[in-house]
Amino acid sequence: MASQTPIQSHLVSSNEKYASTFTKGDLALPPAKKYAVVTCMDARLDPAAAYGIDLGDAHIIRNAGGNAQDALRSLVISEQLLGTEEILLIKHTGCGMLTFDNVTAAGLVRQHLGDAGVKELARFAGDFQTFTDLEAAVRSDVAFLKESPLIPETVTVSGWVYAVETGKVRKVV
């Protein structure tokens, strides 16, 4: 076996400890509480702890900025195949997506990966889905989901902001 990085070794040792007391291997595939959370990949967020989600309760979909467009494919699977009935979209204060724009990001790609990297940005039209107003971004993503023919009208969609400074959430829409 090839040597492991320190992070890989940590994964293996932590998993061995976790698996030694694991008792929930019989949970059903669909989420028990029939909801999905779309939130950011920010390392300062612990959705299970912050939002009271036990293993098996909900789908947690994470991406840069808690972006609804990026999450749409997973949400369709969550609802159509696995029966979820509600979506909580939760962005957060201090999000990195507030700190740059598409031009800046494309410039960094060019600097680090060259023209070939810039060409690959076409896979998502070079749109990093950045935003300058947190609450407006929550409203926009909730509207996107509510207006999508892929999200049935029977699915409840709400938008929230999590404050990384206090650990509290507040409803926006």
Give a verbal description of the structure.
The chain is α/β, with parallel strands linked by helices. The N and C termini lie far apart (51 Å). It has helices spanning 6-20, 47-51, 68-81, 102-120, 134-147, and strands at residues 35-40, 58-63, 86-92, 156-162, 169-171. Helix 2 links the parallel strand 1 and strand 2. Strands 2-1-3-4-5 form a five-stranded mixed beta sheet, covered by helices on one side. It is globular. The protein has five helices and five strands. It has a single domain, classed as Beta-carbonic Anhydrase, Chain A (3-Layer(aba) Sandwich), CATH 3.40.1050. Its cofactor is Zn(2+). This is Carbonic anhydrase. Zn(2+) binds at residues 40, 42, 92, 95. Reversible hydration of carbon dioxide.
Task: Using brief descriptors, characterize the structure shown.
alpha/beta, Beta-carbonic Anhydrase, Chain A, single chain, globular, zinc ion binding, Carbonic_anhydrase, 5 strands, zinc, 173 residues
Rg for CA atoms: 18 Å
Q: Quick one: CATH superfamily?
A: Carbonic anhydrase
Which residue ranges are poorly predicted, with pLDDT under 50 across at least 5 consecutive positions?
none
Euclidean distance between termini CA atoms: 51 Å
Q: Regarding CATH, which class? A: Alpha Beta
Mean pLDDT across the residues is 97
Q: In total, how many beta strands?
A: 5
Question: What proportion of the residues form beta strands (DSSP E)?
Answer: 15-25%
Number of DSSP helical runs:
5
CATH architecture: 3-Layer(aba) Sandwich
- Give the count of structural domains: 1
What share of residues is helical? 25-40%
Give me the strand/helix succession. Answer: HEHEHEHHEE
- Structural class by sheet pairing and helices: alpha/beta
CATH topology: Beta-carbonic Anhydrase, Chain A
How would you sum up the major sheet?
5 strands, mixed
What gross morphology would you assign?
Answer: globular
The strand line-up of the biggest sheet is: 2-1-3-4-5
Cofactor: Zn(2+)
Keywords: Lyase, Metal-binding, Zinc
Protein name: Carbonic anhydrase
Organism: Coleophoma cylindrospora
